[in-house]
Amino acid sequence: MVTTDEKGPLTAKKKSVIIRSCDGDEFLVSESAAVLSTSLKKILEEKEDRLIHLSDIDNKTLAMVIAYLSTHADDGLSDDLKRSFDQEFVSGKEFDVLKYLVLATDTLQVTCLCYTVAKKMADIMKNKLVEWVRREFDIQNDYTPEAEAEIRRLDAWAWDDRQLEDD
Amino acid sequence: MSGPGKPNVIALGRFLQCRGPFAKRRHPLVNPTIVAEIRRCLEEGIEFQGELLNFRKDGSPLMNRLRMTPIYGDDEIITHIIGIQVFTEATLDLGPLPGSLVKESSRASDRFRFNISPSGVASGGTRNVSRGICGIMQLSDEVIALKILSRLTPRDIASVGSVCQRFYELTKNEDLWRMVCQNAWGSETTRVLETVPGAKRLGWGRLARELTTLEAAAWRKLIVGGAVEPSRCNFSACAVGNRVVLFGGEGVNMQPMNDTFVLDLNSTNPEWQHVKVGSPPPGRWGHTLSCVNGSHLVLFGGCGRQGLLNDVFVLDLDAKHPSWREISSLAPPLPRSWHSSCTLDGTKLIVSGGCADSGVLLSDTFLLDLSMEKPIWREIPVAWTPPSRLGHTLSVYGGRKILMFGVVPYVFDLAMFSRWIGEGEPCWRCVTGSAMPGAGNPGGIAPPPRLDHVAVSLPGGRILVFGGSVAGLHSASQLYILDPTEEKPTWRILNVPGRPPRFAWGHSTCIVGGTRAIVLGGQTGEEWMLSEIHELSLASSVL
């Protein structure tokens, strides 16, 4: 799966970089898009290599991040369009997908997208049961039953007269 | 290792990455190509066989021979994966164990390493294989706390603490709580809260809790020194930081006053002080006084010696030589008294309703942006306005919404409206109650109709209403609370310990530091007792 820059011959002259996901697939990205990631920018400044291997990020997530970077590197799009793209970008995505996105954008230091994704995750987490949070984040409960009961007792105001959701 | 319907590799993810109970990253010696191979097999739906490094609970290494076989259902979709594993001792020097959560946390900042520790046993493939590794535990504390948790509500933060020990530690952080408060209540509100001397020592976590549950709310009575002389009524009071400012009012024989008094609640023995202010505006009563731009007061309208007024004056209380300055602008609102006003964004004055000449009630809404060099009055155009009114209150919540609560006896019993400014077309919307006479009120136990009451807008958007002149035999000191942000806003009665004042009037009450409603004066008959102050404090003070 190699995605090409779809902007035609005008931008074809521009420098490109190849980014390889941990699945081994390679993505062709314009340098102007890649440098929107602070991490990629640093790497490109340090070495001439046009191939960057991201062993932390899988295909699906990397494709999404690159779509974001390319859109934001496109000078032909207005800021309004980019903002609405950002909103569209996170809407309807499952929590699981967002988890990988937040991890990837944190690693790649794409600050703006990282915040948008984190905010969307927080919106989904609101009013959720502790069990839901454990399940979605795949977190093992490392409390003893007594310790958990005590913590729940001390923070009882978190639960008093409200209904929490489990989906 | 998997359940029906949705095969998962959660268990695989867990045992692959952790060494030691708090390790958040897969150990570098875990061969990433093996992991990639497992992923490839899962994606392609073929069997995997191989060996990989794994860790015991105590962190000691062992080799794990693993065989994973996919089981297909009727429709060619993987329904289960059978995993068989055999363990053998591994002799490897892995270095010291990551000791504690604290040590791991301190390393969180250098997580930018590309060539080790792939994290996602991810699948973008078409097979129905879910992603499994617990990615979140590899996120640094910074990302979890500052980016995700900081966007939750105070109550969510409190409940998330019981997810696991790591989350508990994160949710006990004062910086996180400050961000939570700021995100939930707006930076203007947190800025105001920070000016409260007790608030900082109280801690944001505690403050968030008390302002959410209102468990610490209590009435208190204060006796202050000094005097506001000559005695008066129908003045206006407003808080600037922890100072209460009183301007004008109606003296004996309906004498309009134009003097300024300040009561500094920061001092150990607060007392009223007459402040000499240059170029005082014409005397008046029934006007409004609002705080803008930090330490500035803005005065609008009221009734003067020559009748109703529509002039605007601004005073910088912190100036070396405080002096009133008139702001003249084209197309001001009609002259009026007993209107209401509030401040939006800390810089914009909103004026609404009131009583014009010959007793005509107004229903318009005007905005004056005082952050501009030459402020201009603008009438906010709306398709429909709530009925004309006076003696109502405007409370700002959620940054850009204004809640109007008011009663005009004989016109409508109770109507409540909310206004949007900046989000598309501004419009009024009925929140609870009804704009139609005789219609029922589905919104719980609503406060009985009243005039010149007190409305306190709490951080987070809730509104507290009490006092005013109440119809019938109802007590004016009963507190009512409404959460307009709820899907179905309902009124509730709030019971608070301590002795409430018998009377409380909107124009003589002000909110100090976002958590204290200062009710000036008990009115006994004709006399205002300005040395007597009742305070409704919403958070406990640490002294």
Automatic annotation (TrEMBL), chain A:
Pathway: Protein modification; protein ubiquitination. Gene3D superfamilies: Potassium Channel Kv1.1, Chain A. SMART domains: Skp1. Residues 15-73 form the SKP1 component POZ domain. SUPFAM superfamilies: POZ domain, Skp1 dimerisation domain-like. Keywords: Ubl conjugation pathway. Pfam families: Skp1, Skp1_POZ. Coiled coil: none annotated. Residues 118-158 form the SKP1 component dimerisation domain. The keyword Signal does not apply. The keyword Ubl conjugation does not apply. InterPro entries: SKP1, SKP1-like, SKP1-like_dim_sf, SKP1/BTB/POZ_sf, Skp1_comp_dimer, Skp1_comp_POZ. Part of a SCF (SKP1-cullin-F-box) protein ligase complex. Belongs to the SKP1 family. Involved in ubiquitination and subsequent proteasomal degradation of target proteins. Together with CUL1, RBX1 and a F-box protein, it forms a SCF E3 ubiquitin ligase complex. The functional specificity of this complex depends on the type of F-box protein. In the SCF complex, it serves as an adapter that links the F-box protein to CUL1. This is SKP1-like protein.
Automatic annotation (TrEMBL), chain B:
PANTHER family: ADAGIO PROTEIN 1, BACTERIOOPSIN TRANSCRIPTIONAL ACTIVATOR. The keyword Nucleus applies. It is found in: Nucleus. Transmembrane segments: none annotated. Pfam families: F-box-like, Kelch_2, Kelch_KLHDC2_KLHL20_DRC7. Its main location: nucleus. Residues 144-182 form the F-box domain. Keywords: Biological rhythms, Flavoprotein, FMN, Kelch repeat, Nucleus, Repeat. This is F-box domain-containing protein. It comes from the Eukaryota.
